[in-house]
Design a protein that fits this description.
Number of strands: 8
Number of domains: 1
CATH topology: Rossmann fold
CATH class: Alpha Beta
Distance between the termini: 22 Å
Helix content: 25-40%
Number of helices: 10
Strand order of the largest sheet: 3-2-1-4-5-6-7-8
Structural class: alpha/beta
Length: 331
């Protein structure tokens, strides 16, 4: 678990987790009392369900989202579902670097360590209808890449000192859609080429996985482990904060109840055996692939474990957000 000094205390992995396991199944024997978590995109869908399950297991959960009203309603919903839950709200719009910086300053001002950071929020402009030009964040980034990757990159790196205090876990929620595109280095923000919604979303999900690899290479030997989760697909729009933006459909057309779709995320937060599998790609409550053991090409694209691409993405991301993070040399 994220805090080695407490490993084995009230923690267990249920014996038969799999495709149809629920978040309740995952946390049935887990005690997260004293742990602190942040979940982005926590006002609906996968993020809300992940936050609810962590809070029900005793964690103090910070719900991060862009809309104060939706955050308040999410707090109320979790407190109704899990009486006595410890829940806080954090206003953070991942499509605005200024908002991310304000949010991280608020978190750092508390001085409290973080045990879990769940980078769950994700958007694509698929529901806007025919798109001829790339929609953009406040800084002018292509919306999917700017929100799904660069916002989370800045959030995570600025919170790294708090993550290092207890040896935390960082969960980057990806998608099977990463198979639709590797990084398009020649023009990642679609400044000169025709916009392709599916490709753009796939590129952003590839970036999530490469960010996982970059984090693990820098912080894994210091006790912070990162994982990429492929969640189960739910109803379109269920996990998004912006009603006009919906998650791209994965190639797997099967739809799951949200408590099943979010189970792998919660398992990634709680399974003690995952400390030995840093940077792994997780799906249906199991390790599908990891560096050095790529598994089946049917489950993922090989480029998500490309170390050179991960280092190129890290340097490019620092340039994009305008900050350099001295987190240590990659292993």
């Amino acid at each position: 678990m994220p805090r080695p000094s407490r490993a084995g205390t009230g923690l267990a992995t249920p014996a038969a987790l799999g495709e149809w396991s629920t978040t309740t199944d995952v946390v049935r024997s887990v005690d997260l009392t004293g742990r602190r978590a942040i979940v982005t995109g926590a006002t609906a869908g996968l993020g809300l369900e992940s936050a609810r399950a962590l809070a029900a297991a005793g964690a103090r959960v910070v719900l991060a989202g862009r809309d104060p009203g939706r955050l308040a309603r999410a707090e109320e919903e979790i407190e109704r579902a899990a009486p006595g839950a410890l829940v806080d709200a954090l206003v953070c719009d991942l499509a605005s670097l200024a908002s991310v910086r304000r949010a991280t300053e608020e978190v750092r001002a508390s001085g409290e360590a973080l045990d879990l950071l769940v980078n769950n929020a994700g958007v694509t402009p698929r529901s806007l209808g025919p798109v001829t030009e790339a929609p953009r964040t406040l800084e002018g980034f292509e919306l999917s890449l700017g929100t799904n990757h660069l916002g989370h990159f800045l959030l995570t790196c600025r919170l790294a000192p708090l993550l290092l205090e207890h040896g935390a876990r960082v969960i980057n929620v990806g998608s099977g859609a990463h198979r639709d595109s590797s990084m398009r280095w020649e023009d990642p923000h679609y400044l000169r080429r025709p916009y392709d919604v599916r490709e753009a979303y796939g590129q952003s999900k590839t970036a999530n996985a490469l960010f996982t690899l970059g984090l693990e290479r820098r912080l894994g030997n210091r006790g912070v482990h990162a994982f990429t989760v492929r969640p189960g697909a739910t109803s379109p729009g269920a996990s998004n904060e912006r009603p006009e933006l919906v998650e791209a459909a994965s190639r797997d057309k099967r739809r799951y109840p949200v408590e099943v779709a979010a189970a792998t995320t919660v398992w990634a937060c709680t399974a003690p055996e995952l400390d030995a599998h840093g940077a792994a790609y997780l799906y249906r409550c199991r390790v599908v692939a990891e560096p050095g053991a790529p598994g089946s090409a049917d489950d993922h694209a090989p480029w998500i474990f490309d170390e050179d691409a991960a280092e190129r993405l890290w340097a490019w991301s620092e340039e994009q957000v305008g900050e350099h993070f001295a987190l240590g040399a990659p292993r």
